Amino acid sequence: MPWLDNFTNEWNAIISRAVLVLNSEALPAVQPSRYRLSTQHALVMQQQEHLSRRPNIVLINCDDVGYGDLGCYGSQKNKTPALDRMAAEGLKFTSFYQASPWCSPSRAALLTGCYPPRIGFTEFDGMPVLFPGDRWGLASSEVTIARALSERGYATQAIGKWHCGDQPDFLPTNHGFDHFFGLPYSNDMGRQVGEIQEGDRERIKTPPLPLMSDAEVLEQQPDQASLTARYVNEAVRFMRASRHRPFFLYLAHVYVHLPLYVQQRFTARSENGVYGAAVEAIDWATDVILQEIARLGLSNETIVIFTSDNGSLAVNGGSNAPLRGRKGTTWEGGMRVPCLLRWPGKVAAGVAVDTVASGIDLFPTLCQLAGITHRPTPEIDGLDLGDLIHGRSTNLMERPFLFFNRGDLEAIRVGEWKLHFSKSGNEQPLLFDLDRDPSESIDCFAEQPGVVARLSSIANLARSEFGDRRLALQGSAARPIGQVAQARTLTEFDPSHPYYVAEYDLADRG
Ligand code: MG
Q1: Of 25, 145, 320, 328, which sits most exposed with the smallest number of CB within 10 A?
Q2: Residue 411 Cα, ligand 1 centroid: separation in angstroms?
Q3: CA 190, CA 192: separation in Å to the nearest integer?
Q4: How far is the CA of 324 from the centre of ligand 1 (A)?
Q5: pLDDT, tens digit, for every residue of 374-418?
């Protein structure tokens, strides 16, 4: 059938643009850190003139901040003047999706440019995210943005939440980051008020929350209200120390994941409770970072990207408005998130971009902007957004975007149309016109059989690549997740240890 051929060709063309052939010369073997530092230094010396023209990259990734949580995305509750200014000075993406509605697969996808099933991030012993001491994580053979940039002489630092595996093989310092300061997983995966020491086998095993410096546990059960200020301090220190060479800073905030501990200076003025205070703390952090970049004279040489790993839980004052659904779902509210991109003098100011774009596009986009022509990865799914962010014409509007949840292909978007197949393992065929109906409220499935057939055929091609757990299909392109034979938690609960216990300790999780 001609239309099917057309769309098969379209899909293949898109896939072929995304397929990046492994270039062995471009990817030196992973070396012990001392050797890597010395080779980086040599590389900097050899290519100093060229490197000086490469942009610095600051990638800010929030946790569970929803589409409707920022002033520049319509929030009337949260005050976000720095982020609103950032939007006025750069691009505001209005159809930007992360590749999963859950933390671990979203972050692994963001860092590698791959849909989660391609890198084995589907389910983890029946759970949607990684937990302390799990034996899985991002495979050492996968190439992150940090590794690609590091091997080209960038200074790299991860600050904040990782959540791509807590075993030594999987930590940031084994994935291209020179340094790591932050939490290996979610901030509700430590000991909280209500933990009991007998009679609850799961809770008693919950290890104290580790705050890490590189691969070492620096503190157990840190004061979470202090974390954002400590992260900002570390970010400023890193940018100052790296100002004479290109740098990549990945700042993954603790907010607004539960439990929410926020400094009193933010809670005192919030008009949206502790949730609003957390959003406003993120805004403050962005302001400090942008001011520091300006103070260092690096504004025109630094790309700053602000986004979130998935939608809001939409409780406690959170909002995905006007989108339907929330974190953990493949409704728009689960995966369409805020995304701002600021690069003064290089990209337009105050422009809203409605073209479909995704976190998985950042890997090829940033590599291209950093002058990396041989992308060091066997195969990825993201597309280079270079033309889009520079305002040149692009056909990205028609690229298919896939909505995976725990390995199920639950929905697909092509152009204005989004076709749902299932929710939580149950078949749920629905079709929405997102241009006219971003809230996914008017089902067009019965009226648009041609659209349904067209999107279904593209989805079937995708299933052959990535598999579909609900349909028990294996994907031909799926690579195995990283796995270690013996896993252990980074910390162990010791009843006699004097852990930090806050008087305001919270029981919230999620
Ligand atoms: Mg999250």
Answers
A1: 25
A2: 20
A3: 6
A4: 17
A5: 765 679 999 999 999 999 988 887 899 999 999 999 999 999 999
Distances (CA, A) of 318 to 67, 92, 93, 411: 9, 20, 20, 24
Domain boundaries, the chain: 56-399
The candidate with the shortest Cα–Cα distance to 254, out of 211, 287, 218, 219, is 211
Q: How many CB atoms lie within 10 A of CB 271?
A: 12
Cβ atoms < 10 Å from Cβ of 270: 20
Rounded distance from Cα 229 to ligand 1 centre (Å): 20
Q: What is the pTM of this model?
A: 0.89
φ/ψ of residue 304, rounded to 5 = -115, 125
For 426-440, the pLDDT digits (tens) are 999 999 999 999 999
How many angstroms separate the alpha carbon of residue 7 from the centre of ligand 1? 34
pLDDT, residue 373, reads 79
Residues of the chain with pLDDT under 70: 1-52, 194-205, 375-377, 500-504
Q: In angstroms, what is the span from residue 69 Cα to ligand 1's centroid?
A: 14
The residues assigned a catalytic role are 103, 163
Q: DSSP letter at 63?
A: S
* CATH class entry, domain 56-399: alpha beta
**Measured distance CA(467)–CA(475) in Å, rounded:** 4
CA 235 remoteness from chain centre? 18
- Give the number of C-alpha atoms closer than 13 A to the C-alpha of residue 355, restricted to the C-beta side: 21
Extract the runs of DSSP E, i.e. beta strands, from 42-154.
56-62, 91-93, 96-97, 136-137
